[in-house]
Design brief:
Elements: H1 3-40, H2 50-56, H3 64-112, H4 133-146, E1 149-151, H5 170-180, E2 199-201, H6 206-213, H7 222-238, H8 241-245, E3 250-254, E4 274-277, E5 292-293, E6 318-323, H9 329-338, E7 344-347, H10 356-361, E8 363-369, H11 378-384, E9 388-392, E10 411-412, H12 421-426, H13 430-443, H14 458-471
Helix pairs in contact: 2-3, 3-4, 6-7
Keywords: Coiled coil, Glycosyltransferase, Golgi apparatus, Signal-anchor, Transferase, Transmembrane
GO molecular function: glycosyltransferase activity
Family: Belongs to the glycosyltransferase 47 family.
Length: 477
């Protein structure tokens, strides 16, 4: 019995040492698990910046509180970046949500064949010339309500922010001025900040570049392409919007024959750019689903539109009329076939005692052939004179054809059928002709230039075509 206490005294220290070792092991294990959980609860970082990598670097001799300070500093910074990113996303989300509502509203108008408006409208599209008048009316209404355009401020006149205001390229200058004129009624479309813009306008003038850089008989497109490309590069480097969509929500506008060729300056960079062009030739790269065909108009020096000298249809004695230069393969074929005909009156140079607009007003049909290019002011001149346009062009994309049915107010003749023109026109019955004339009168307002622009007029129609292209784009956010 005496030996028992002695044995206990020998065993007790060993037991205490083992117990202490066990608790120390448990403590160390719990500390490891705590570090593991803290890593699991840290937010994941995609493509961390160099600052984040530095903050995550382990230094064996650093104290725990220094590591905690570095970590929480990183958290604060990341929260700021996330908040900034969220603000940017919310602007895009707001834009896309509005466009989704517009699409739904247009679809509803199509389904119900009705439009409800709280305001009185100065023009209501109705009749067979429209593919879907209810969808068109609602789409235009949504455009006026929502559409915002940011015009870039970079660049100096006359190459940028200014264009021709008269003659064949006049629409270019009037559109640029309308986009930038703060007193214009169209300023309802002008975005106050680029973050709220649906599309971005590149306000350079191809016509003014042509006048500034070229001498007679100089046909090198290089300088125009270079300046246009430089402008895109400037705005792409200075602002985030081009790179965000690779240019898919950006557009330019020009009526010059050379305008389509700027895409060749850098096809990869400019492949998504919306080009609003008069020279809308599908055989030369014009893409109707992306690009916008616009009508060429001959703007008089003082007045915006040609004089209305059209006679009543019952008093029109000329079957068909054309006056213009005999250039381009289409016109050469037309003159070769019909120049000596008495019913189809062709003039390369109109006699001085005859007024061009009066001749349009005395004709039942007005011939609108291609020249060197497919663009021509003859179509708008015919419509303004209430003369049925006979469009003689190949590979031409018709303006506003998203909403207008050109078969209801014009005659299309491919180049191969020029010898059949007279037979075709004489085969149109008086009833059919009367319908065509009513169609021309129905669309006349859409080809009328107003300053300031008014609903459903020419500039509004151009904007509506751009609006429709933007409705087809969905930006990620």
């Amino acid at each position: 019995m005496a030996k028992t206490p002695t044995k206990l005294l020998l065993i007790l220290p060993t037991f205490l040492i083992l117990t202490l070792f066990f608790y120390l092991s448990i403590f160390h294990q719990n500390k490891f698990n705590f570090n593991l959980l803290s890593k699991l609860f840290r937010p994941p970082f995609d493509n961390p910046s160099i600052n984040n990598i530095i903050n995550h670097t382990h230094h064996p001799h650093d104290h725990d509180h220094d590591d905690n300070i570095s970590y929480f500093t990183m958290l604060v910074k990341q929260e700021k970046e996330k908040k900034k990113k969220k603000n940017n996303q919310s602007s895009l989300e707001k834009i896309e949500d509005g466009l989704a509502r517009a699409r739904s509203s247009i679809q509803e108008a199509t389904r119900t064949r009705s439009c409800k408006s709280e305001e009185e409208e100065i023009f209501v599209p109705r009749g067979p010339v429209y593919r879907n008048p209810y969808a068109f009316q609602q789409s235009h209404r949504e455009m006026v309500k929502r559409f915002k355009i940011w015009t870039y401020k970079e660049g100096e006149r006359p190459l940028v922010h200014q264009g021709p205001m008269s003659y064949f390229y006049g629409i270019e200058g009037h559109f640029i001025q309308e986009m930038e004129d703060g007193t214009s009624s169209i300023n309802k479309f002008m975005a106050r900040h680029p973050d709220e813009a649906h599309v971005f306008f590149l306000p350079f003038s191809i016509v003014n570049m042509r006048l500034s850089f070229y001498k007679p008989l100089d046909y090198d497109r290089g300088p125009i392409n270079k300046v246009s490309l430089d402008y895109v590069n400037v705005v792409a480097q200075k602002h985030p919007y081009w790179n965000r969509t690779h240019g898919a929500d950006h557009f330019m506008l020009s009526c010059h024959d050379w305008a389509p060729e700027i895409s060749f300056a850098n096809p990869q960079l400019l492949k998504n750019l919306i080009r609003a062009l008069c020279n809308a030739n599908t055989s030369e790269g014009f893409q109707p689903m992306r690009d916008v065909p616009i009508p060429e108009i001959n703007v008089p020096g003082k007045d915006l539109n040609q004089p209305g000298l059209g006679l009543r249809t019952s008093k029109r004695r000329i079957l068909a009329f054309f006056a213009g230069g005999n250039h381009g393969h289409v016109r050469k074929s037309l003159f070769a076939q019909w120049e000596k005909d008495s019913e189809i009156q062709l003039y390369e140079h109109l006699p001085k005692n005859q007024n061009y607009f009066q001749m349009l007003g005395q004709s039942k049909f007005c011939l609108c052939p291609s020249g060197y290019e497919v663009a021509s002011s003859r179509i708008v001149e015919a419509i303004r004179a209430e003369c049925v346009p006979v469009i003689i062009k190949d590979n031409y994309s018709f303006p506003f054809s998203d909403v207008l049915d050109w078969n209801r107010f014009s005659i299309y003749v491919p180049k191969a059928k020029i010898p059949e023109i007279k037979t075709m026109l004489k085969g149109i019955s008086p009833r059919q002709y009367a319908k065509l004339v009513r169609g021309v009168r129905s669309v006349k307002w859409h080809f009328t230039l107003n300053r300031p622009s008014k609903p459903f007029d020419l500039i509004h129609m151009v904007l509506h075509s751009i609006w429709l292209r933007r409705l087809n784009i969905r930006l990620p956010y």
